[in-house]
Specification:
Blueprint lengths: L11 H7 L9 E10 L2 E11 L4 E5 L6 H8 L7 E6 L11 E4 L13 H8 L11 H14 L15 H13 L5 E5 L7 H18 L2 E5 L12 E6 L2 E5 L1 H4 L2 H8 L4 E5 L2 E5 L4 H8 L9
Parallel strand pairs: 3-7, 3-8, 5-6, 6-7
Antiparallel strand pairs: 1-2, 1-4, 8-9, 10-11
Helix pairs in contact: 3-4, 3-5, 5-6
The structure holds adenosine-5'-diphosphate.
Adenosine-5'-diphosphate (ADP) binds next to helix 2.
Length: 294
């Protein structure tokens, strides 16, 4: 399969993370990786390294295997072929080194859990808890909620929060263990533009301040266009990896989809026209501000 770039030497994050001494050690490595359910191959021959501090966006139409890739990294889904390492070893469930923002479902309106309870639940005692007394844990919870701007509603039952507020709390929960890798599954869904910006800024700050590698699944590249280092675009059982400028082009996406796809740049935004998946076309071309899904 043709690839724009795979497991290639990296740009800004590598130089940043490696300092003077050379290439940084990847936090995630896939080699010859394939995932199929029965006869249906979602992707194959995937070689990918994700470095400390790198922001990788995973794009592609519904059903292309984006969530399944996260499940592989979380140790919840074995590969069909090839190999994967996360922090130098086989992925395993429950790693405190991975923060996970699952696909957003509204939290039940009647739940009594407060934002601070969710964040506390996210602290598994491994990195913070053992030597921390309850007071220190409380202070750490406050610190994390403060870092995502959620202190004002720390004691409000989360079911009463807006979608954007809930998403801030989810990110706080994912950061509770001070993770080295942050996996986000469509974290911008159903959020208004301002909340989308808040979420993308929080994620970006995290990878810059803590060298946390970010794998960010999204239908819509525009909200993260200025932030991502590389895009992994999955479609039609294949993929392309590269910078947004390399991948989001008429020729690359036309090759990937096996049909003519036009990639337009309109006032700094990317609009994809003609991709076979209707949802993808709609989402890439949607709202005047790249605001996301219907
Ligand atoms: P995406 O996140 O890109 O929408 P997913 O990874 O959720 O895609 O799913 C890709 C395809 O694999 C979908 O068609 C889905 O129905 C199918 N699929 C996901 N998980 C399983 C599973 N455990 N067994 C069989 N098929 C699955």
């Amino acid at each position: 399969m043709e690839r724009t770039e795979a497991a290639a030497p990296l740009t800004r994050p590598a130089a940043h993370a490696a300092g003077e001494g050379g290439l940084a050690t990847p936090l995630i490595s896939l080699r010859g990786a394939a995932l199929a359910y029965g006869d249906r191959v979602l992707w194959r021959d995937l070689d990918l390294d994700v470095l400390p501090g790198e922001f990788l966006a995973v794009l592609g139409p519904n059903g292309s295997g984006k969530t399944s890739l996260l499940r592989v990294l979380l140790g919840r889904q074995p590969l069909t072929a090839g190999s994967v390492t996360v922090l130098g070893r086989a992925p395993r469930r429950g790693s405190s080194h991975i923060g996970y923002v699952p696909q957003q479902k509204s939290l039940p309106a009647h739940t009594m859990l407060r934002a601070r309870d969710l964040v506390r639940l996210g602290m598994d005692g491994h990195r913070w808890g053992i030597s921390l007394n309850p007071g220190a844990i409380g202070r750490r919870v406050d610190e994390i909620l403060g870092s995502v701007g959620a202190m004002a509603y720390a004691d409000v039952p989360v079911g009463k929060l807006s979608g954007g507020e809930q998403q801030r709390v989810r990110i706080a929960q994912a950061l509770a263990t001070d993770p080295r890798i942050l996996l986000c599954d469509e974290p911008l869904l159903s959020l208004d533009l301002q909340s989308q910006r808040t979420v993308t800024t929080l994620v970006d700050q995290r990878r810059r301040s803590a060298e946390t590698a970010v794998v960010f699944v999204t239908h819509e590249i525009n909200p993260v266009l200025g932030l991502v280092d590389r895009v992994l675009y999955l479609a039609q059982g294949g993929f392309r990896i590269g910078t947004p400028d390399e991948v989001m082009t008429t020729s690359t996406l036309s090759q990937l989809y096996g049909t003519r796809v036009d990639v337009l740049r309109v006032r700094g935004r990317i609009v994809v026209v003609g991709a076979p998946d209707a949802a993808t076309v709609h989402n890439h071309a949607g709202g005047p501000n790249g605001g996301g899904r219907p």
